[in-house]
Amino acid sequence: MKLSPNQSLAGVLEPVFAIRTDEDLGIGDTDGVRQMIDWCHRHRLSILQTLPINEISDDNSPYNALSSLAIEPATIAISPRHIPDLPLARFQDLARPELLAELRGGPVNYPGVKALKRKLLEAAFENFLKQHYIPETERALQFRSFLVENGAWLSDYSLFRVLMEENGDFPAWDRWAPEHRSPRTARNWLLSLPVKRHVELVRKQLFFMYVQWLAFGQWQALKAYGTTQKVYLMGDIPFGVGRFSADVWANRSIFDLDWSGGAPPEKVFKVDPFTEKWGQNWGIPNYRWDELRRRDFDWWRTRVGNIQKVFHLYRIDHVLGFFRIYSFPWTPDRNAEFLPLTEAQAAAKTGGRLPGFKQFPDDTPEHKATNQAQGEEILRVVLEASGETTVVAEDLGVVPEYVPPTLLKLSTPGFRIPTLFRDPDGRYSDPKQYPRLSLVQPATHDHPPLAAAWAECWHNIDAGKDVETNRRELRLMMEFSGLESAEPSREFTDQLHEAFTRTVLQSPSWLAVFQITDVFGMTARFNTPGSVAATNWSYRLPHTVKELDEDPVLLQQTEMFSRLALESGRVS
């Protein structure tokens, strides 16, 4: 079904890893998502948004996936109830109560969680082979059908995962054994192995395919369940993919490894010296759009096809990259080397190349027109491949003037973050003027929740840091909320919380999505950009989904949010 902008909708954003249930194995999973669908349904909320669910790499970031086509195995709900191939005795033997108690407490323990889930999935796979695959049961035929349907990517992905483990579980394929560094040489190597070793690795390939079959099966069932409950799952496609991913390893011709995508220098917010001077170097390889065009954008069509199977709508992270991408002629591991250099010194090290926008900077009308045409062309391909799935464009950052009209022309909502959309005098732009075709969100996963931003201003004031600037920020938030006559209190009060929420929900934006932490007035963050910390991508709500309605304070805040959504016409 296609969602219609004629019906305003409201919902919440919660990363899957952050969901807590009574039976999880130390990380949120599809059973937790199902419980959150029920929670949204009870409170008449229509959208449940997640971060990307693709298989993560060694930094645990959902925006640096091992594969943009495969689903993260840790999201699979694993128990005999959820996976019929898993024997109860093996589950009880591996998932011991003392281990579960250790994993369930506090933030996500990725090494522990992944190790347990891997053992359980291997146990399920071994039983599946004996009970179904070898005897060719109906369940085995369903698995084989999945292999055929996903053959365009699944074979390369599963081989990549096998080779990664053969090379010390290290994703940097350019440092693997030489015969493993490309699909062609890797397949020749596999065929050259002694029979026993060959069979062992082919069996392991089949295991990774089996895991994806389970993952897609559970997520597709979730989408169907959400449809029955009128709670629509919203996913996320990052613009770029990790340099050391199955995607790049298997599709080298569509990526330009000489350039790393990122964002231009940030002169206003003093994030760190490198970002202020050179910009953000994300390390993602640029796309070779000419080669993708020659192939009718086949890889992007497959990518979109995978996400539309499991989500009702999704956002494209950094859609601006379709138009032009700020690019570095070096990878992030060399940032420190370039930090102290002048542009002339940097150019001497790179053969004359310097960071800048590609394909073109927006410095002439001709360049702007070319960038705009490319972005529109790619977006049209994405929209066509999405079918009935709604696409939302995350268009935050330095936005060229041609992007908003292009999104409007293609009936694609952009984003409105109140703290980022300001008038020339610094005041928040009038939310009543937000375009209908937009998604409004007080903060994304990269921003501090409202209560945290409020507390940070007071912390700076107490420390004597930019006192007047921070006092003004407090007053501007009060003004946006319709409370400009009141003096900012030290606490993020219930009155301010409700007033800010009401203002956002009453905007004309088609979609309004709040981080779950903003619904509850919490201060915890899911990620702090530019930092490498164990706290990134690991925070879990301290309450199980069941406890959200049992805690009187949380229930009161949920009911406030639901009531305001109803008053704003966002409940069907």
Can you describe this structure?
45% of the residues lie in helices and 10% in strands. The protein is an alpha/beta fold and 572 residues long. It has an 8-stranded parallel beta sheet. It has a 4-stranded antiparallel beta sheet with strand order 5-4-7-8, with no helix packed on it. The mean pLDDT is 96.
Distance from N terminus to C terminus (CA atoms, Å) equals: 16 Å
- The protein's oligomeric status is single chain
Sheet with most strands: strand arrangement: 9-6-3-2-1-12-11-10
- Biggest β-sheet description: 8 strands, parallel
Instruction: List how many beta strands DSSP finds.
Output: 12
Helix content: 40-55%
Spans where pLDDT lies below 50 across 5 or more residues: none
Shape: globular
Summary?
The protein has helices at 30-42, 88-94, 97-104, 110-133, 138-149, 151-166, 183-192, 195-229, 246-250, 273-277, 289-294, 298-310, 335-338, 343-350, 365-386, 403-409, 450-462, 467-480, 494-505, 516-519, 545-548, 552-567; strands at residues 9-13, 47-49, 232-238, 255-263, 280-287, 313-317, 325-328, 356-358, 390-393, 414-416, 438-440, 511-515. The protein is an alpha/beta fold and 572 residues long. It has an eight-stranded parallel β-sheet with strand order 9-6-3-2-1-12-11-10. A four-stranded antiparallel β-sheet has the order 5-4-7-8, with no helix packed on it.
Can you lay out the helices and strands and say which pair or pack?
Layout: E1 9-13, H1 30-42, E2 47-49, H2 88-94, H3 97-104, H4 110-133, H5 138-149, H6 151-166, H7 183-192, H8 195-229, E3 232-238, H9 246-250, E4 255-263, H10 273-277, E5 280-287, H11 289-294, H12 298-310, E6 313-317, E7 325-328, H13 335-338, H14 343-350, E8 356-358, H15 365-386, E9 390-393, H16 403-409, E10 414-416, E11 438-440, H17 450-462, H18 467-480, H19 494-505, E12 511-515, H20 516-519, H21 545-548, H22 552-567
